[in-house]
Amino acid sequence: MPLSQFARLIKTAAVVFAAAGAASSPAFADQLDDIRKKQEIVIGTEAQFPPFEYLEDGKIVGYASDLLQLVAADLPGVRLNQLDVPWPAILPGLSAGKFDFVVTSVTVTRERAEQYAFTVPIAEATVALVKRKGDASITKPEDIAGKAVGSQTASAQLKALQAFDEKLRGTGAGVDAITEYVSFDEAYADLAAGRIDAVSQALSNLAPLVKARGDMFEIVGPTIGPKTYYAWAGRKDPASASLVKLFSDGIAKANASGKMAELQMKWFGFTMDVPADAVPEPTM
């Protein structure tokens, strides 16, 4: 057989084997395509975080719920199966595939950004303190030295409190005790009852709390942490990229159109200037 004919034969065989290999290999899985085929998306939400998301008459309502309805317009024919999940199980549940996406207020941190894919922000999450109204022993954040303070377990607000405590200890006395709670409602109840002296929480959550319960609670200024943001989260893998992009683009569209500002006024009574073009670099 002439050398040129042999070379053509080898080239033809290589093409055939390559095509056969491609046909036999599994197709690239795309989560968004799967959701559209199933016509259902399973969403994890911690519905104990007013005014972002909470239960009212057995239904999940709030700022994030309204924002979700705007974004879901880009998933026509897809049913939203939204699960109420305790905060400590939210991100582990996403990793384990218990749900497709997280629509709850997740503070963007460096550690989380390494493990999860975030959307553009939905709100600011900078941390502040709240005390019992009229407690003259706390007039500034540094006054929590020697006192009992609470926050939610595994939360960025707890992390900010711990960092502030370390800062206090570097200059003198730190917090006497930090109590962790499954939900912030439990922390507020203990604060009202005098079992703790302050609660560390995002300012965007505290402002509506104090507006509704100004007879009981009072914000301690200034904030105790760097500027941070809340966002929604998906899994950080190629299969999830298109789904994360759909949610992120939907949030950005709501931001640019002014719809986000309208929802913020409805649920918070003020607006927050958050980036719409990219996920900000985490500050904590």
Question: What descriptors fit this protein?
Answer:
single chain; 284 residues; six-stranded mixed β-sheet; five-stranded mixed β-sheet; 10 helices; disordered N terminus
Structure description:
The protein is an alpha/beta fold. The chain is built from 10 helices and 14 strands. The chain has helices at residues 3-24, 31-38, 63-71, 87-95, 110-115, 156-171, 184-192, 203-212, 241-257, 259-267, and strands spanning 40-45, 48-49, 53-56, 59-61, 79-84, 101-107, 116-118, 123-124, 127-132, 148-152, 177-181, 198-202, 217-220, 229-235. The strands form 3 sheets. Strands 1, 5, 6, 7, 8 and 14 form a 6-stranded mixed beta sheet that branches. A 5-stranded mixed beta sheet has the order 11-10-12-9-13. Strand 10 (148-152), helix 6 (156-171) and strand 11 (177-181) form a beta-alpha-beta unit. The longest helix has 22 residues, at 3-24. Residues 1-27 have low confidence and may be disordered.
Number of helices: 10
Oligomer: single chain
Query: What is the approximate shape?
Result: globular
Low-pLDDT sequence parts: 1-27
- Residue-averaged pLDDT: 91
Pattern of helices and strands? HHEEEEHEHEHEEEEHEHEHEEHH
Radius of gyration: 24 Å
Major sheet characteristics = 6 strands, mixed
Structural class: alpha/beta
Strand content: 15-25%
The end-to-end distance, rounded to whole angstroms, is 70 Å
Helix content: 40-55%
Write down how many β-strands occur, each being a DSSP E stretch of 2 or more residues: 14
